[in-house]
Design goal:
ABC transporter involved in vitamin B12 uptake, BtuC, 293 residues
C-alpha cells in the first residue's frame, strides 16, 4: 500500500473521529433551532461545562469513565432545562431577546467555568489503552474508534427516541406545528425544555469524549463549539441528518487538509465551508425551518 493511500486512510479515520464530535455539537444546535427557531449561542459554553463536569468526576473524583460520562450527560441536561426556564419569559417579547439571552448565558457560563475550575486547562488521561494499532502500515487510535462508536450509538438512540416514543413524537409535532400543538393542549414549553435538555446532553457527550484529546478549558467552547456551529450550518441548520453529515464532512475536511498544510488546516477548512454555502446556501442536507415566535 502506497504511503499516500496510507496517509489518506489514516486521515479519514481521524476525521471521522473528530467529525463525530462536531456532529454531536451540531445536533444540539439543530435540535434547538428546529424546535424553537432559536440559535442557542450558549451551546458552545454548555459543551465546555459538560466536559468539565465529566473531567471532575473522572480525574478528580476517580469515578469510572462510563459513570462520569453518564453523570455529565444528566447534569448538563438539567442545565439545559434551567436555561429554557430562564429564557421562557423572553420568548413572550421577541425571539431576538431570547437569542441575546443565550449570548448572555454563554458569557456567564464561561466566566463561572473560569471562577470554579480556573483558566488553565485540565489534562484528561485516556480511559482505555490507546497504543495505536498498526494494520498494513495504517496506524489506528483505539480511542478514535471509541468516539466513532459512541457517537454512532448516541445518534441511533436519538433517532429511535424521536421516531418511536410518544415523547419524541410529541417533540417533533411541537417543532413542526407549534400553533396546532397548542390548540391540541400540548405543553409546548415542556417540549422546548426537553429539547434543550437533550441538546445540552449531546454537547456534554461531545465534551467528555473529546476531553482526552484536547485540554479541557474554557477556551474549548470557542474552538470546538464554533466548529460544531459551522457543521450545523454546513449540513443545513435545523436538519438533524444535516448536522450529522455536516459534522463528519467538516471533520474529514479538516483532517485531510492538516496532513498537507497543518498550519492552514482550519483556515482552508472554513474557506471550503464558505464556498459550499455560496453554492448551496441551504446546506448539504438543507431543509426549510420556520422561525417560532
Amino acid at each position: 500500500m502506497s504511503s499516500y493511500v496510507t496517509i489518506l486512510i489514516q486521515s479519514l479515520i481521524g476525521g471521522l473521529g473528530i467529525g463525530s464530535v462536531y456532529a454531536l455539537v451540531a445536533l444540539g444546535y439543530s435540535m434547538v433551532y428546529r424546535s424553537m427557531g432559536l440559535v442557542n449561542f450558549a451551546h458552545g459554553n454548555v459543551f465546555a461545562v459538560g466536559a468539565y463536569i465529566g473531567t471532575i468526576f473522572f480525574v478528580s473524583m476517580h469515578t469510572n469513565f462510563v459513570v462520569a460520562f453518564l453523570l455529565a450527560l444528566i447534569l448538563t441536561a438539567l442545565l439545559g432545562m434551567l436555561i429554557e426556564k430562564i429564557l421562557r419569559p423572553l420568548g413572550k417579547m421577541d425571539l431576538t431577546y431570547m437569542m441575546l439571552g443565550t449570548l448572555g448565558i454563554g458569557i456567564i457560563l464561561q466566566n463561572l467555568s473560569i471562577i470554579i475550575w480556573g483558566p488553565n486547562g485540565i489534562a484528561v488521561p485516556y480511559p482505555i489503552m490507546n497504543t495505536p494499532w498498526v494494520v498494513k502500515g495504517i496506524s489506528i487510535s483505539p480511542y478514535t474508534l471509541v468516539i466513532i462508536a459512541v457517537a454512532a450509538c448516541i445518534v441511533i438512540l436519538l433517532e429511535l427516541f424521536l421516531n418511536k416514543t410518544k415523547i419524541g413524537l410529541a417533540m417533533r409535532a411541537s417543532a413542526q406545528e407549534r400553533e396546532m400543538s397548542l390548540v391540541l393542549g400540548m405543553n409546548v414549553n415542556l417540549m422546548n425544555a426537553l429539547t434543550l435538555a437533550i441538546g445540552s446532553a449531546l454537547a456534554a457527550c461531545a465534551g467528555v469524549l473529546v476531553g482526552p484529546i484536547f485540554y479541557v478549558s474554557p477556551d474549548m467552547s470557542a474552538s470546538v463549539g464554533i466548529k460544531g456551529f459551522a457543521a450545523a450550518i454546513l449540513g443545513g441548520f435545523g436538519s438533524i441528518p444535516g448536522a450529522i453529515v455536516g459534522g463528519l464532512v467538516f471533520g474529514i475536511l479538516e483532517s485531510l487538509v492538516a496532513t498537507q498544510v497543518s498550519a492552514w488546516s482550519q483556515v482552508i477548512a472554513f474557506l471550503v465551508f464558505v464556498v459550499v454555502l455560496i453554492a448551496r446556501p441551504s446546506g448539504i442536507v438543507g431543509e426549510r425551518v420556520v422561525d417560532k415566535l
